[in-house]
Amino acid sequence: MSEHAELATTPTSVNLQQILRDAEIEPVIESLEKELVGLAPVKARIRDIAAFLVVSRARSQLGLEAGTPSLHMCFTGNPGTGKTTVAMRMAEILHRLGYVRKGHVVSVTRDDLVGQYIGHTAPKTKEVLKKAMGGVLFIDEAYYLYRPENERDYGQEAIEILLQVMENHRDDLVVILAGYKDRMDTFFRSNPGMSSRIAHHIDFPDYSESELVQIATRMVGTMNYTLDDEAQQVMQTYIQLRRQQPHFANARSIRNALDRARLRQANRIFRQAMDGNANVDAEALSTICAEDIRASRVFSGGLDA
């Protein structure tokens, strides 16, 4: 084929909206909006990254190659702020735009990567990377990989293997590190090689009180339960008190609280049945009352556990 023929077959423009439609990115972003309450800055960053990926795909179609962009990320924030959910949706976006082959997410912690003796870490880390290839590797509490206070720790070996794969296979694997912001900052200062490979940093803020109330209401509905009017008021008071206590994990703590409320509700209904009121209808089985929540030790100053 002549040079003129090749030029004739090269498009001079692309339709970005068509790329979006073909990849079906908007439904993924919309599902993220529905799944997660609040987190406006996080959702904005995800849209920014999606726009960057679409434009990069358009440049590629016009022959404006710039190499595979670095897409490794760091999610920082407290527990229960939606980091794992966002990682799953990010994997979908990457897959639909052709940046990873499969779009699956492999979630791990230090224990899945670091061995207990010499020669144990490399095969463990490589096995995890093999499973994650073609998708996203999500490393929670990633700062635990580096323990400088322990001279016999093998975390550094796992980091070195990760660094090599993140550079050499960035067209087939995206690594997302996650954890508390201050600890991740310390981790990056101690591991500049890792820091230089992370292109996108996203901070996940804590939920506000009103957002946590929305989350509780949404979770109850998903479980096919309802809170009666008084229970809704008590739940709001519970959230106010629990947020002030240590080890509060945002949406995760709310889910745990509702699980315990369901347990108390079941015991309440069972006791009533044993006292002679054996017939129960769907409404009774699906309604969480104020007493089911108020029984929490949070109301007396203790931890709900």
Characterization of the model:
This protein is an alpha/beta fold. It contains 15 helices and 7 strands. It has helices at 3-9, 16-23, 25-35, 40-61, 83-96, 110-113, 121-132, 155-168, 181-190, 192-197, 209-222, 229-243, 251-274, 282-286, 290-294; strands spanning 73-77, 105-108, 136-140, 174-179, 200-204, 226-227, 287-288. It has a 5-stranded parallel sheet, sandwiched between helices. Strands 6-7 form a two-stranded parallel sheet. Strand 3, helix 8 (155-168) and strand 4 (174-179) form a beta-alpha-beta unit. The mean pLDDT is 90.
Q: How large is the share of residues in beta strands?
A: 5-15%
Mean pLDDT: 90
What best-fitting shape do the alpha-carbon axes yield?
globular
Q: In terms of per-residue confidence, which ranges show pLDDT below 50 for 5 or more consecutive residues? A: none
* Number of E-type strands: 7
Number of helices: 15
Quaternary class: single chain
Share of helix, binned = 55-70%
Can you summarize the main beta sheet?
Answer: 5 strands, parallel
**CA gyration radius, whole angstroms:** 24 Å
Distance between the termini: 73 Å
Strand order of the largest sheet: 2-3-4-1-5
Specify the structural class. Answer: alpha/beta
Reading the helices and strands in chain order gives HHHHEHEHHEHEHHEHEHHHEH
